Amino acid sequence: MSLAGHYTYWVTIFLMIAGLYIVIARGNLVKKLIGLGIFQTSVYLLYIAPGKLIGGTAPILAATFNTYSNPLPHVLILTAIVVGVATLALGLAIVVRIREAYDSIEEDEILDKDSAGDEGQ
Amino acid sequence: MIAENLPALQVVVPLLAAPLMVLVRRRTFAWLLAVAVSWTALAIALALAFKVREAGVISYAMGSWPPPWGIEYRVDALNSFVLVLVSLVASVVMPYARTSVAAELPRDQHYLFFSMLTLCLAGLLGIAITGDAFNLFVFLEISSLSAYVLVGLGRDRRALLAAYQYLVLGTIGATFYIIGVGLLYLMTGTLNIADLALRLRDVHEMRPVLAALAFITAGIGLKLALFPLHFWLPNAYTYAPSAVTAFLAASATKVSVYVLLRYYFLVFGIPLVFGRLPMAEVLIGLSVLAVVSASLVAVYQRDLKRLFAYSSVAQIGYITLGMGLANEPGLTGAVVHLFNHGITKGAIFMLLGGVSLRVGSTSLERIAGLGKTMPLTAFGIVIGGMSLIGIPGTAGFISKWYLILGAIAHGYWWLAALIVASSLIAVAYVWRFVEVAYFRAPAPAAAGLAEAPVSMLIPAWIMVAGCVYFGLDTGYTLDGARLAAQVLLSSVR
Known about the structure:
Chain A is an all-alpha fold. Helix content of chain A is about 70%, strand content about 0%. Chain A has a single domain (about 5-120), classed as Helix Hairpins (Orthogonal Bundle). The N and C termini of chain A lie far apart (about 65 Å). The mean pLDDT of chain A is about 85. Chain B has a two-stranded antiparallel ribbon. Chain B has 20 helices and two strands. At the A-B interface, α1, α2 and α3 of A face α5 and α6 of B.
């Protein structure tokens, strides 16, 4: 139970917090989505790392193999990756539309334009 | 054959109909199919609810893989209630949407709109019916992704920004949820929700379980707009097309509340959540803040859609309040308020869709004299508003009555007083509408204003009638909610 023995968790937590920080701290809409992607990726590691046994193989019933890795996390994460790709694609598509409507992808500039529009009405 | 497979058909029918609409690319076909699908879903949900009352819990093994190995669809008194609510709202909103969408969206997007709305329906029904924690995440994302698209279709360019914010926060919420599920999976080795509850009893290392509880609370809290995680909601509801606002306000947040109820009471269990942890205090505290602050903010809004969006945050506060009380009357109040608030807000947002169609805006300045120009619409909104306040004879009264009973059962008299006092704030924001609509002369420009189209008024008034009907005859809603509350409290251990 050493700290170094759990290094996959440290990597996971670092990516998780780094991704979330980018989402919160950046004003650029594309950079926010990149942060969101990193955040989601950290969860893939969270699932997959514990499913791996050192020396384990895929669960194939044969006399030569007796240590198996759990295949379920891989399947789950395959689904989660598809969800992540769809989210990122939709997010970027919305950013393209925002760029067309506002001519900017910086959050504060967009908010300025909207509040200026309100006063003009 | 069909009767056995009803739980699967509940989700599969809308899930297959959505891509079919995209392939055929016909407006009328997409609309007709969407109406047919939502009515079928309602029939299935009612049949399931009936079956559950007769014969108890229905367990359906997807693809004949027995649970806990395969994905189980599990219908009990709690989620059959949610299934009926979601499909009922959908089957009223779909017929309504045709005229509303024709006015708000370009013609070539109509079939895509109905495809997305049907997909969202499939996702929400899936969340409610599935008995598998990971399957729930997939349906959560199906419904959320289609909801982001639907919000982004609004006419105002701010709809895009609202959709973007909703996407970012919604994805963080879903990811938090899946982190929580991952931690539970690490500790128990199962993803079946019923099996999770059993195996968690043997888990002695509590820290990962507590972390899972925290992640799931924060994640689902974002999805259901639990105060203070509600920032995405007012913008999303304000700028989304009218039919979308009506549908999402009445169903999406309610389904998330259901998920939280299931995890708190049936997975983690009352002794952990409300015994060892101060979640009751946290939930009640946040709910009171939500009710008071969101109602106060609603009073100062200049746009009706935004006003009622803030009111939604407050009303969700009542539901989580009942959850925090965690006794039978409180939970009955919470579950029945899912339904009552669903139809009330559905009715109001559908009528506001008619206002925005005729007036071109839902801002308070523009609707002066609405009581004269659009009498049926204005009167419907007033009835909906009365249900939000909780005046006896409307659906909202029933839920508040049970919440007050729940508070008194704990000896929280101050809380009962607060529930009544917060209703007075609701009077204030509903009165703002009444004052402008009835006591101000119509603007000269509004002289030729006609009542909303009949095809929109009829579905909206069905919902309004529901607000009154379910306030007088509480047979179905209250019995259903009470049975659901008993399911939630049954697993005390």
